[in-house]
User: Which sequence fits this backbone?
């Protein structure tokens, strides 16, 4: 199964827009000057979705969710504007979560892309502990950054995460990846 979306006319049927305000998503001309439209996601102070804090989320449509333990590849490009504020504040730019059964545990993402204080990082969650697998301290703003992930979310030791940033492998992790109580 291969899913793709060029966002030329906005998000296609691959996505669900459950945690984003209607004006938070729009196709725009490529800010790097390429002859194409790209998807701009905007989060403004106070934009809250489902009462769970400030959110602007583009999520895979439910019908494409894969079972825990699936070996899968993801690739996308990320552009952060040059004038994007560099602040000491939590910002998740992408995340992977397992299906959660009854969801009462409300786990943090098993894998996350984060941007804080001008540092881009890739993290995993081990129980209550966040582990930083990679940090890019060089400024990634003002240019397209190609991100490629090969992963398998599975709690007992067969999980893995490989990640590439702009063609350079930056993560090669093997071990538990995910939550044992979220095995769906």
Assistant:
């Amino acid at each position: 199964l291969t899913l793709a979306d060029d966002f030329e006319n906005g998000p296609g049927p691959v996505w669900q827009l459950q945690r984003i305000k209607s004006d938070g998503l729009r196709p725009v001309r490529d800010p790097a000057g390429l002859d194409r439209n790209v998807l701009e996601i905007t989060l403004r102070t106070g934009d809250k979705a489902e009462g769970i804090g400030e959110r602007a989320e583009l999520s895979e449509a439910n019908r494409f969710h894969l079972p825990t333990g699936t070996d899968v590849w993801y690739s996308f490009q990320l552009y952060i504007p040059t004038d994007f504020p560099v602040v000491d504040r939590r910002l998740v730019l992408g995340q992977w979560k397992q299906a959660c059964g009854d969801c009462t545990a409300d786990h943090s993402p098993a894998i996350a892309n984060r941007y804080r204080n001008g540092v881009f990082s890739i993290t995993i969650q081990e129980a209550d502990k966040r582990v930083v697998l990679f940090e890019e301290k060089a400024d990634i703003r003002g240019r397209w950054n190609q991100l490629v992930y090969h992963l398998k979310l599975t709690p007992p030791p067969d999980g893995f995460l490989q990640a590439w940033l702009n063609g350079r492998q930056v993560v090669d992790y093997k071990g538990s990846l995910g939550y044992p109580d979220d095995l769906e």
